[in-house]
Write a structure and sequence with these properties.
The protein has 115 residues and is of the alpha+beta class. It is built from three helices and four strands, in the order βαβαβαβ.
Length: 115
């Protein structure tokens, strides 16, 4: 049985062209899904704000989702960090999530059992 993970990352939208190019350079890269998102940085990381700033400080982000074999997780995660890091607050986060089951919609087959 294959071991797989879902790699999720929330990144700045302007980093996507470079990220896409870098991820496509990884041999057998399985592809990705993008979701538009908005977020804000933890208040402790930023100076004092007004109430108006607190209520309207959402910034555009993108969630990148990749389903990959366990063996590829570290390379994909490291690529995301390297390409998406600007050194500024708000660069984003990346984290892997274990996948217990995964089935093809087309025929219901168990994709983790396939070799």
């Amino acid at each position: 049985m294959k071991e797989m993970k879902e790699i999720r990352a929330i990144v700045r939208p302007n980093r996507l062209p470079l990220l896409r190019e870098a991820l496509r350079g990884i041999p057998n890269f399985p592809g990705l899904t993008l979701t538009k998102a908005e977020g804000f940085t933890a208040p402790a990381a930023v100076g004092k704000r007004t109430v108006k700033e607190e209520l309207t400080d959402y910034t555009p982000k993108v969630m990148v989702t990749v389903l990959a074999n366990d063996a590829m997780v570290e390379e994909i995660r490291n690529t995301i960090i390297m390409i998406c890091s600007t050194g500024q607050i708000g660069d984003g986060i990346v984290w892997p999530v274990p996948i217990a089951t995964m089935h093809r919609i087309r025929n219901g087959s168990d994709m983790l059992a396939e070799e």
